[in-house]
Amino acid sequence: MPTEITRRSAMAGLAAAPVTLSSSAIAQTQALRGQGKPNFLFILADDHAGYVMGCDGNRNASTPNIDRLASQGTRFSAHHCNSPVCTPSRQSFLTGQLPHAAGVTVLTTALATDKPTLARQFKQAGYDTAVFGKMHFNRPAEPGLHGFDVVKTEDEITKDWRARVKARPVPSGIRTKPAWQPFKDPARIWLNAEKLPFPRYDRDMRGTFIATQAVEYLEARSRDQSREKPFALWTSFQEPHSPYDFPVEDRGRFDPARFPVPRVGSEDAWQIPLIFRDLTDEEKRGIIASYYTSVAFLDRNVGHVLDALHRLNLEEDTFVVYMADHGYDLGQHGRFEKHCCYEPSLRVPLIMRYPGRVRRGVVTDLTEHVDVSATIVDMLGLQQLPVQHGQSLRPYLEGKAMTAPRDHIFSEYLENEEACIKTKEWKYIFCSGKRARQDGYETDRPTPGRYRRLYSLKDDPGEFTDVAAKHPEVVNKLAGLMLARFRATHPEREAEPAGLGRDEAIEFYLTPRDAPPIALAK
Asked: In the prediction, which pLDDT does 520 show?
C-alpha cells in the first residue's frame, strides 16, 4: 500500500469537455462585462447529498434542472463540506474560514456580527445584496445583517409565506404528514417512512414561495432600468432536509421498492444511533423514497429561479453557484442523518456556471467548501476576505492547470469532538470519545473513549473495515496533517499547552469553544 500522499496534476482531475461558445461570442460577452460588473446568484440546498443527482450518475434521482446547470458549467464531483452539520458549514463558507476559526462549530451558535462575510465583500464592491430562505444565522433578521441589504431568512420567510399564500384545501382522502417532531416521535414518523406529502399543493409550498421571492427580486431589478448596481442574490431552500417536504402532487412519484437498503457493516453495530435501531427495511425504503421525492421538488424550484434568469436576459451576465451545506446518509452505516465523517455526509454538489468564462466539464480533484468563497472573490474581482482558508478554483473553471491541487480535504464535527482527513486513497477519522453528544444521536457508548479509524478508499469505498492497525505509517501521516490544519488556522493555537503528544494536541482543538447561543424571542 502507498504510504505517501502525492499531488496530482489538475488536468488529470478535469474531464475533457469542449467550451461550446465561439471565440467571437466569448469576446462579445467579455466586452459587455467590461462595461460593468457581473451579477451573482448563489443557490443553496439543505442536506442534498452529492450522490443524489442524475449528473452524478444516479439513475433514480430526478434532477433535470440541476443536471442542465451542470452541463452548462463546471461540476466538482469530489467536493466536500468542512463540517457535516448545518450552521457550522454555512457560516464557514460564508466567511471563508474553517468552522473553528469562524467561531461556529455547533448547531445553535450565531455567527458574530463583526465577522467578515462574502456578502460584505460584495457590498464593498458596490453590489446590492439579498437573501431569501434558510441561512441558520440564529439571530433575528434585520437589514444589513452580515452584509445583506434584504434579509428574509427562516422566521421572516415563513411568516411572509403564511400571510401571502392562501393554501387551497387538500381533499380529505389524501393522507398528509403530521407536524414535524424530531426525536419526540419515532424515527419512522419524523423521517416520513410512509412517504406522506406536506398538506399543500405545489404552488402553495414554502419552497415554491422562496423561489418566487427570488424570481420577484430578479423581475423587480429587470424592470427598474435606473439600477446601476449589480446584484448578489442568495436563494436558500430547506429541501431535502427531513422531513423531506414535497407537495401532494408528488406523493406517488417514487416507488419505495426501487431503492435497496444499504448494507450495514459489522463495525457499525454499536455506533448506529439508538433512534434508528427499530426501523424495518420497508420503513427505510420509504424514508429513502421520501428523500428522493423532496430532491425532485427542490430541483423544480431551482429550475424556476434559473428559468427566470434566462427569461429576463440575465443569464449571460450572472455567475451562478449551486451547492449544498453538507451531504446525507440514507441508511449507510445504519444512519439517516449527517453528523459524522462518512463519505455520504461529506460529499456535496458544487456546480459553477458563468457563460463565456467557465468551461463545461467535470473536476474530479478534491475540493473543500472554503475554496468556494475564495473562488467567488477571485472570479468576480472582489477584495479577498481578510481570513481565507481556501484556495481559488479559478484555474479549473478556465481549463488551466492548478498549481497545487488539494491532496486532502479536512472536515470537523466538534459536537462529537471528531475530525477527519480524506485523500484519494485514505480516510482517517479521529474522535476524542470524551464528549457526550447533545445532537440526539446517542449510541450504545455515549463516551467510548479515543478512537482512530483508517479506511482504504480503493479497497473499501464504503468505509466498513478499519485498517489503522495495519498501516501505522499512514495514520501518522494523516494525523500529523490534521494537527497541522488545526495549528495553521485555529485562533487559539497560541494557547496550546506545551509538551502535549500529537493526539492530546488534536483533542485540544476538538473542544467546541463557541460563544453561548443567543436567546431568540418566541
From this structure: 61
